[in-house]
TrEMBL record:
Gene3D superfamilies noted in UniProt: 3.30.70.20, 3.30.9.90, FAD/NAD(P)-binding domain (3.50.50.60)
Stored PANTHER family: ELECTRON TRANSFER FLAVOPROTEIN-UBIQUINONE OXIDOREDUCTASE, ELECTRON TRANSFER FLAVOPROTEIN-UBIQUINONE OXIDOREDUCTASE, MITOCHONDRIAL
EC main group: oxidoreductase
Transit peptide listed as a keyword: yes
Cofactor field: [4Fe-4S] cluster; FAD
UniProt superkingdom: Bacteria
Residue ranges annotated for the ETF-QO/FixX C-terminal domain, each copy included: 450-550
The protein's name: Electron transfer flavoprotein-ubiquinone oxidoreductase
Amino acid sequence: MNASVHHQRETMEFDIVIIGAGPAGLSAAIRLKQINPELSVTIVEKGTEVGAHILSGAVVDPIGIDTLLPEWRNENDHPFKTPVTSDQFFLLKPKNATVFPNILRPKILSNDGCYIVSLGNVCRWLSKKAEALGVEIYPGFAITEIIQNDNGAIIGVLTGDMGLEKNGTPGKNYMPGMALLAKYTLVAEGARGSIAKQLIQKFDLSKNREPQKFGLGLKELWEVDPQKHKLGLVQHFTGWPLDNRTGGGGFLYHQENNLVSAGFVVHLDYKNPYISPFEEFQRFKTHPQLYEIFKGAKRLSYGARVISEGGWQSVPKLTFPGGALIGCSAGFVNVPRIKGSHNAILSGILAADKIATALAQGRAHDEVKEIEEHWRKGPIGKDLYKVRNAKPLWEKFGTKYGIKLAGFDLWWQQLFGFSLFKTLSHTKADYECLEPAEKFQPIAYPKPDGIVTFDRLSSVALSHTHHEENQPCHLKVASLKKQKNSEYAIYGGPSTRYCPAAVYEWLDHNDQETYVINASNCIHCKTCDIKDPNQNINWTCPQGNEGPLYLNM
């Protein structure tokens, strides 16, 4: 949006506007107010409350929190209640499992000193810290556009209109969006955010970078029999039910109150269009190594979200005139460690430090290049650089050999300080990896038993997802003809399987295959925006205050 247009809207001005109340955005806000309490800092969050859209395992390395809030351990209300007490890694086969001895695992993969948490509750806790410092947090508002001045710099953002009818016209409860102007804007939307996507394209931030890679993470929260619960136990699994060429794996984390977080990740560079990540997750729970823990237990919550997996090679340029990308908007997940929140927090701190300095110098709307120049030399860069070849090796050699080669590479670096592989490249973008359906056989997934395994619609109900039905569809299909002639005719309609919320259907209507989009089911995972083989689906923000409401996730 051009700067002149925002004058037609109600306008508010701040020193810094932050998009997204996740770990990165909240940490940046806290750090800014720690440095200069007089700064006006606001966070805009599209979820109905802070933490509503936060989904993660999560086993957290406390290095970020230690840097941001060094005295947090002296407080009683912090959410880091469950230190890791035991750490196991299994290779699953259909009927048995092999445990990998911890002594053979490189030091960087250890979870010693880490905590099992609900990352949503961590964000709720951080939001209280931020508000106590004077940060203004506005949940329930989606950012839909960026505002540029005549020189092309970002000078603010626009919240989405509320109360539009399905045809895009104002309804009886219509409220136009507001213009939020700022000297600097920080983008902390999480993986594959819609504003970050716009900025990466507009400023060519991915130039000379490898394509970003993603995984789809699915999670359920269970209350289990106390006799089966082992507080602080962390278990990771790879192998079955995925085939050797499909990357991913699962986890069980035993946290307080007899709760167990069960999750499964499927790397989105898979080839077979008949794969359903949701169904693979359900199959995973039926393995003899896991099934017993779920018997007699109660499933409390469900959710799914994509994860940035490209790492060192794929992180885009962070800075642009008027702002920066932070957290998972940039892609700071350490894939072998299965951790990213520590780097998200550190990135928020880094951006805050550099922007506070720029503001103190009287700067505004320029490019704070110091953020980009520093991150690779600091703790985030050091963390990602060590594991830079793990994902490419897995891509190229599959699970059986890729994990072994990645382990060898990590050990070699631990012992000698360099990699024999130097820096490997990713093969291609995830959507380019999908192959025509004629090369594969459909997968006959077992029917859910309603005890341990479930269907997608009953699962979506546990995400507490809500969307106003009578609004424009936020899932934009550029060409329905291409969707039918390619996505359906060539690839067998993979959107009906890769979506973990049953949003997409191909239905027979008057002897014609019709594409049906159940947008109200959408849990904002962003998989369709990534995996559609023609990049024909564009995920955009629905009106604010919608989507999932994740509790204790």
